[in-house]
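tool=predict chain=A
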Amino acid sequence: MISSSQKRILTWLSKYSSDLEKSWDVTRDISLPGIADGLGVVRSALNLPLKKLQQTEMVFKRQAHVVGGGSRKRQVFHITNKGREFISKNSVIPEKKKSLGIIIGNIPSIGEIIGRDELINSLISKIEMNSLVICGLPGIGKTTVVCELGTKFNQQGRTIRWANANEFSDLFEVCKQWQLHDPLPKNIDALQDLICQKTDNEILIIDDMHLISQRHIKPFEELSEKIIQISKTKLVFIGREPMNNFSSLEKIQISPLEDQFGAQLLGEDQTMEERVLISKRLGGHPLALQLYQPEFDLPEQSVNVQRYVEDTVLSNLGKQEKDSLNLLSMEPIPIMSENSLVSDSIGIFDEQALLRWSSDNLNVEVQHLIRNVRRSFLDLNQQKQLHQKLSEHWQNISRSVQEDMILLFHQISSGNLNMVELIEEQLISISTNKSNFLAVLIEQALELRPESSDLHYFAAKVAAHRCELSILKHHIGKIEEERKSELNLQLAYLEGRTEDAERIFSQNLNHKDPHTVNKMAISAASRRIDDRIFDQNIDQELITDVRKYLSKINISKLNKEVKSAALIAITVIKHSLALLESDINAAEKFSLSVGELGLEAESLMLILRSKQQIFRLKNNEISIEETIQFIDNAVSSQTNLIYSDSIRLNLVEALIPVDIKLANEQFRLLRKPEDDIKSNTYYRYVARWWLCKSYFSPTEKLTCLRESISVHKTAGCTRAAKILESRLHSFV
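tool=predict ok
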């Protein structure tokens, strides 16, 4: 006689190909922990039914390497042909309703949900009315409930977008998980506009919301308010108590399971009376039930879950295992199991239900309840020692950008005396991919060294990069005077204070050495030329300003190499100036002279000549077809991708007023902007790209204009930003 437990196991295993039977690497889903997670039962509840299935030759077990489960071989289970034949004739679990919608993001895989039907039906009604906060104790089943909620809505045809948060997450990183758009705007207002526009009537879910740093929480609160006002989209925030943010949203607290349902998690190998008693003693807490082993002593009913974990579950671990668990508990975010310092212990912890896995079973972290208990055992010095061990480990392995930030986290948390220098190294190339990490890590460093002017300076630099004006202002006030000028200039740009920016820049220009003055003047002249909109009439002020900056340049004392680069840059500026003054003959002379200045200059010459062709197109001297042919040839000859994109973007801007359809065709040939912007020149290109996109995407016009304005300001192009702001106001 085959029991219902055995049938469910066979059904689960039948999903996996017989090809796995001889594989060295197998999925975690066919290990004991994977089966238990898939079926939503306690691991110990599988022992007897699996034993009986082996006796009847419907299942066999072997040793294999579980992907992501450490280096040691582990027991895995396979269904036999006899088992497959039985399942084909004895359908067990009714087919799930067909999903009419789509699910986007790494939504966790959950087994059968037990005892939550009434709650889920209630939540469905509530979320039809408004966004919700789902909160409760660690391990109480918040994620499981919302997963099932998402499945129900998905079956109704709603799109579900899922994101997992950590203590470094910002809105941009969450939107990447939601797969909203490529590229994503960086400006918060633009990003919020995009979310509202792209997700109408969808369900947006963020798990572990409580982990998000206060450094990054405000945009999420603003988003929830905006969605309430203008969108049918609903947000579901999942977090551990207390959830003090989002005061305008209803908070639903997830309660423990009723004893009869808690008993179901324990399988069928004990009497119902015994299982009800276990559930009662463990307070109906799902994770506590998952951690239960028959050899454990049951706590008194009044004992809380954390105490049970501390006194019973973890008391069975040896010292080495506890030390390893401590190390894994100090990791700030889920990590690749194979990269863990304690990778050999991963399998042991997994067998004991101490770990939480990503949906692909590759990234792992300690169950938050377990993690909190382990951390509570450690004083500050012990934590610093663990962080030191982990920093040494991460320093000696090949790392991704994210893992670079994990290393920096441990270095800061260990109290590394060189933390200022370590952070400064990461600031050399701030990118969107790590600015969210750096923002939080610098704040953590400031908690250790609140008076450090260097750290406040770094915090201000990151805030400026992220266009966070209030944070930038806060940190500027705590920086030494000699460092304030650079940041005050950036603040003036970001706030659109053109006159103040020019004044600060001129002051800087007058107090620098000749070499720095040359660089600043060349940069300023180039920026001033770009500080306009492509369809804007040329005014004399622009010409005057560019000539003023050029007059500040003195290259007579520069060495040969530096002088050559400066000459090229100056010639490019003079070429642009000539075209602005409609002096095509002078422009041609400058383009020819650039071509004589070196290999790099040959590529630049193509850019200059393409600008001349576009000038002739605008003046009806050549046809659109001739111009496009020239541009195509110029682009194909370029090895520098930024140069080739710049050439085509110039053409797009020229075509927009005369042939919007053709302009769009050319725009589609451009590469999308990169996340990692490393120069003001590229910032200005990106600003222009978003402006052009606003012409071709009417439904995204508001988002595109906001982002173009923001990037123009970041690049120091305040005049262009002001023009676009007036257009934005007209559009709104």
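The radius of gyration is 31 Å. The first helix runs from residue 4 to 13.
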